[in-house]
Amino acid sequence: MSLALAYARFKLLEIFRIPVSFFGVLCPPLIAVTFFVLPLNGDDPLVSTMVLGSMAVFGVVIICIMEYAADASQDRETPWYQYLRTLPAGPVPQFLGRVLFSLVMIVLSVGPAMIVGALFTEATASATQILAAAGVLVLAVVPFSLIGLAAGYAIPPKSAVAVGQLLFLPLAFGGGLFSDPYNLPGFIEVISPYLPTRGIGDLMWYSLGGPSPNPLALVMLVVWTVAMAAVAAWAYRRDEGRRYR
């Protein structure tokens, strides 16, 4: 665990030294709340609370997919990371360090957005609901970080950022994070349960007092997690084989 903590600290110091990257990661949830949630603020506390929950999930999605895809692809080209991969500790401490790094970034990113939402909307939640929602966000790190890692190790570094951008927006819209998830238009309603964002979204909304999750969406969330873990492991081994064998 000490290696994971050291790696997480290294990643935090690295991003803090690049203000553009730091604020580029932290600002999207706050911007989304400011421009999409506050102007449409209604009188229904449950709706306001669920919308803020959607924005929290959006923050996790963008941090995990964009950071992991860009970070993993760029790290592959750096001498320091290539040296780390030759050490006997293996990839597990680095992965755990990335997860810890993501959790810190999620707190720094989602926290201000939720504070603004709590102050200027009708959203309300009990302590139990807040803890449950926080648990959902921690759970969300796993599938979306695996999606980011799969992209980061499978795709050339110059393309990874673009692919990450192409991934998170369709996943966010298709999962119902930017609209009423129970009244989606046309084909989006058909494909929504098959996207990982819908499974996490359903858990988030349920934790805040919304309807029970769609069983199909939960099953597909597990399928996505297992599939992306397999793809990430395959891509990592393929990259390792190219460089060190």
From TrEMBL:
Membrane association type: Multi-pass membrane protein
Give all residue intervals belonging to the ABC-2 type transporter transmembrane domain.
12-196
Q: Name one GO molecular function term.
A: ABC-type transporter activity
Query: What's a GO biological-process term for it?
Result: response to antibiotic
Key words of the record: Antibiotic resistance, Membrane, Transmembrane, Transmembrane helix
Task: Give yes or no: UniProt keyword Transmembrane.
Answer: yes
Q: Name one GO cellular component term.
A: ATP-binding cassette (ABC) transporter complex
- One matching Pfam family: ABC2_membrane
The residues that cross the membrane are 20-40, 46-66, 95-118, 130-153, 160-178, 216-236
The record ties this protein, via InterPro entries, to: ABC2_TM, ABC_2_transport, Nod_factor_ABC_transporter
The organism's superkingdom is given as: Bacteria
Q: Where does the record say this protein resides?
A: Membrane
- Protein name listed in UniProt: ABC transporter
